Automatic annotation (TrEMBL):
InterPro entries on file: AAA+_ATPase (IPR003593), ABC_transporter-like_ATP-bd (IPR003439), ABC_transporter-like_CS (IPR017871), ABC_transpr_LolD-like (IPR015854), Cell_div_FtsE (IPR005286), P-loop_NTPase (IPR027417)
Keyword Iron appears in the UniProt entry: no
Source organism of the structure: Alteribacillus iranensis
Subcellular locations according to the entry: Cell membrane
Family the entry assigns: Belongs to the ABC transporter superfamily.
GO cellular-component term (any): plasma membrane
Record's function text: Part of the ABC transporter FtsEX involved in cellular division.
Protein name, per record: Cell division ATP-binding protein FtsE
Organism taxonomic ancestry: Bacteria, Bacillati, Bacillota, Bacilli, Bacillales
Superkingdom of the source species: Bacteria
Domain named ABC transporter: residues: 4-230
Keywords: ATP-binding, Cell cycle, Cell division, Cell membrane, Membrane, Nucleotide-binding, Transport
GO biological process, one term: cell division
Bilayer topology annotation: Peripheral membrane protein
Length: 230
C-alpha cells in the first residue's frame, strides 16, 4: 500500500536556491528508507516536505492518498499526528521529566489521563527506558535522550516516522542502540524514513537507499549502499 507519493515535485526558495527538481517517488507502507547525499543536495527539503514544514513550488505530495499540498493550515496539526519526527538535536523540554516530555504530545490533543499513562509506559518499554521515566533530560546520556525523542515521536502511533540525522550527535556505540530502536519500530509496521550521513549504518543495515544530488534523485535501490558523487 502506498503511504507516500510525490509527483513532479520541485522546490525553489525565495532566495533563488533550487532545492528539488521534478521528484517522483513512491514509498510503501512498512518500508525502511535511507535518504543520503552530499550537504546541500536537498535531503532536508525532501524530508520537510513529508510533514509539510515546507511546501513544493510545484507538484503534488500524497500521504495515505490525500494531497497534503492542498491542506488548509488548520488541518496541518492533524496530519502531523500521523507523522512522527525525530531530530538530530533531540528537542526535549529540559524542565520536564522523560515521562512528561512524552506525555506532552498527548496532553495537547486532550487525551484522557489514563490513556496517556498507558501509552507513555508502552513506548518507554519499546525504547527500553521505563526505569528512567522520572529523570530529567540532562540526567540522561545522548543516546537515551534520542530514544526519549523517538518515544515522543511514536506515542501517537504514527504511520510514518521521519528521522532527520538521528545519530548525527552520537558516538558509534550509541548510534547502534538508536538504530536498534528504529528497527523495532519499523518491524511493528511503521514506515521509517531516515536522512543520514552515516555510511557504516547504511552499509551494515541494508535497506532501501534514495540518493539525492543537486536536487534530483540519482539512485533508488532496494538494499542499496551509501555512495554518491562528491
Amino acid at each position: 500500500m502506498r503511504i507516500i507519493e510525490m509527483n513532479n515535485v520541485s522546490k525553489t526558495y525565495s532566495n533563488g536556491v533550487n532545492a528539488l527538481n521534478n521528484i517522483d517517488i513512491l514509498i510503501e507502507k512498512g518500508e525502511f528508507v535511507y535518504v543520503v547525499g552530499p550537504s546541500g543536495a536537498g535531503k532536508s527539503t525532501f524530508i520537510k516536505m513529508i510533514y509539510r514544514e515546507e511546501l513544493p513550488s510545484s507538484g503534488s505530495i500524497h500521504i495515505q492518498g490525500s494531497d497534503i499540498t492542498k491542506l488548509k493550515s488548520k488541518h496541518v496539526p492533524y496530519l502531523r499526528r500521523k507523522i512522527g519526527v525525530v531530530f538530530q538535536d533531540f528537542k526535549l523540554l529540559p524542565k520536564l521529566s522523560v515521562y512528561e516530555n512524552i506525555a506532552f504530545a498527548l496532553e495537547v490533543i486532550e487525551e484522557p489521563r489514563h490513556i496517556i499513562r498507558k501509552r507513555v509506559m508502552e513506548v518507554l518499554d519499546i525504547v527500553k527506558l521505563k526505569s528512567k521515566a522520572r529523570f530529567l533530560p540532562d540526567e540522561l546520556s545522548g543516546g537515551e535522550q534520542q530514544r526519549v525523542s523517538i518515544a515522543r515521536a511514536i506515542v501517537n502511533d504514527p504511520r510514518v516516522l521521519i528521522a532527520d540525522e538521528p545519530t548525527g550527535n552520537l558516538d558509534p556505540d550509541t548510534s547502534w542502540e538508536v538504530m536498534e530502536t528504529l528497527e523495532t519500530i519499523n518491524r511493528s509496521g511503521t514506515t521509517v524514513i531516515m536522512a543520514t550521513h552515516n555510511r557504516e549504518i547504511v552499509n551494515t543495515i541494508k535497506r532501501r537507499v534514495i540518493v539525492i544530488e543537486s536536487g534530483r534523485i540519482v539512485r533508488d535501490e532496494l538494499r542499496g549502499s551509501y555512495s554518491y558523487e562528491r
